[in-house]
Design brief:
Number of helices: 12
Radius of gyration: 23 Å
Structural class: mainly alpha
Helix content: over 70%
Length: 277
C-alpha cells in the first residue's frame, strides 16, 4: 500500500508544481496539503498501528470509518486530484492510455451514472449500514480479506458521496446548491440512527469484542457508547459545516443578483423621470 501512496503523492506533486508554474493563483498550497493529508488519513486507517487496534475497540473502528468516508474523500476531492494527476503522469501514459480510456463513451456514461447524487447517496448509505450489521461486521473482523473489502467500501462510498458536494473537475458545471444542502441533511439521518442505537443501547452490539484481551463487559458498553457519540458528533459537524458553506455561497450569489437588478430598475426609473416629455 505504501508504494501506491508514494506513487500518487509524487504524481500529484509533479502535476501541482507544473500547474502552479503556469499560474500561481490557479492552485494554492492548501490543495497539495489537503491531498497529502487525505492520503495520510487513509494510511492511518488501513496500515498504521491504529488499524490493529480496531479489533480491540469499537471507538477505533468508528474513527477509521470517519477517516475513510468523511474526512479523506472530502480533502482529496477539494485538491482537484484528476487535474493534477493528469499533469503529473508521464505524457505517454496520459496521452496513450488515460485520455483514450476517459474519452471512451461507455466510460463517460458510467461516470455520469456514478456521479448522480442519488447513486452517490445510496452507495455511501449502503456501505455504512451494511458493514455495521452485526453479521457482516463480525465477518469483516474475523477475516483480513473481508476487512479490506469493508474498508474499500467505506473509501469508495465516501469518494462517491463527496463528489456531488465538492464537484471537482471534470464534474458537470450544473450547480444544485439547495439540493446539495438537502443531500447533506439526508445523509446525516442514517448516521444518526446508527449512532443513536449504539449510544442508547444497553446491550453489546458486537460480541466479538467480548473475546478481546483486556476488556470487561462494562467497559465494552462504555466503548460502544463512545463510538456512537463520536460518530454522531463528527458527522453532524462535518456535514453541517459543508452545508453551511454551500448555503452561504448560494445566498451570496442570490444577494449579488438582487443587488444588481434593483440598481438597473432604479436607473431606468430616474431616466424616465428626467427625460423631457
Amino acid at each position: 500500500m505504501i508504494p501506491v501512496f508514494l506513487f500518487l503523492a509524487i504524481a500529484y506533486m509533479r502535476g501541482w508544481l507544473r500547474v502552479r508554474a503556469r499560474s500561481a493563483q490557479a492552485v494554492g498550497p492548501w490543495c497539495a496539503t489537503g491531498f497529502l493529508l487525505g492520503l495520510v488519513l487513509i494510511w492511518m486507517a488501513r496500515a498504521s498501528p491504529m488499524a490493529s487496534d480496531e479489533a480491540h475497540s469499537l471507538t477505533v473502528h468508528m474513527a477509521q470509518h470517519l477517516m475513510l468516508m468523511s474526512l479523506a474523500p472530502a480533502l482529496i476531492w477539494m485538491a482537484e486530484p484528476v487535474r493534477m494527476l493528469m499533469f503529473g503522469l508521464p505524457s505517454p501514459l496520459a496521452e496513450l492510455v488515460v485520455l483514450p480510456i476517459a474519452r471512451w463513451r461507455p466510460i463517460q456514461r458510467l461516470g455520469q451514472l456514478l456521479g448522480h447524487p442519488l447513486v452517490c447517496w445510496l452507495a455511501a448509505t449502503t456501505a455504512l449500514v451494511a458493514w455495521h450489521v452485526p453479521i457482516l461486521f463480525m465477518l469483516s473482523m474475523h477475516s483480513t480479506g473481508w476487512r479490506a473489502i469493508a474498508h474499500a467500501s467505506f473509501l469508495s462510498g465516501g469518494l462517491l458521496f463527496w463528489w456531488p458536494v465538492v464537484r471537482p473537475w471534470p464534474s458537470s458545471s450544473i450547480e444544485r446548491p439547495w439540493s446539495t444542502v438537502l443531500y447533506l441533511f439526508l445523509a446525516t439521518l442514517p448516521c444518526d440512527v446508527l449512532s443513536g442505537l449504539l449510544v442508547f443501547s444497553e446491550r453489546i452490539a458486537y460480541p466479538i469484542y467480548l473475546t478481546a484481551p483486556g476488556h470487561l463487559s462494562v467497559s465494552l458498553l462504555d466503548d460502544q457508547q463512545r463510538a456512537g457519540a463520536l460518530m454522531w458528533t463528527a458527522v453532524t459537524i462535518i456535514y453541517g459545516v459543508a452545508g453551511v458553506i454551500v448555503a452561504t455561497r448560494c445566498l451570496s450569489r442570490i444577494s449579488l443578483r438582487v443587488d444588481e437588478r434593483p440598481a438597473l430598475r432604479v436607473g431606468c426609473g430616474l431616466r424616465a423621470r428626467l427625460e423631457p416629455r
